[in-house]
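Researcher: Go.
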Amino acid sequence: MKIYTPSDAARHAGNKYLGVLIAARFARAINELPRERLIQKEQKLTTQALEALCTGELEFKITRRRRSEA
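Model: Structure:
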């Protein structure tokens, strides 16, 4: 089993904080899928998400946050 580090995520996302954030959001999205549609691997969801990011399977787009006008 390969171990993915924040440095590996940084190579694909720009910096390690953004890489970990993207992987965490993808892991949450995987978790919300119905159980029959989940990727059946013996890895944790966060490991699956980091693997997808580090291998280039996961594509992402950064959008600016809208400011609420209060």
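Model: The chain is about 50% helix and 0% strand.
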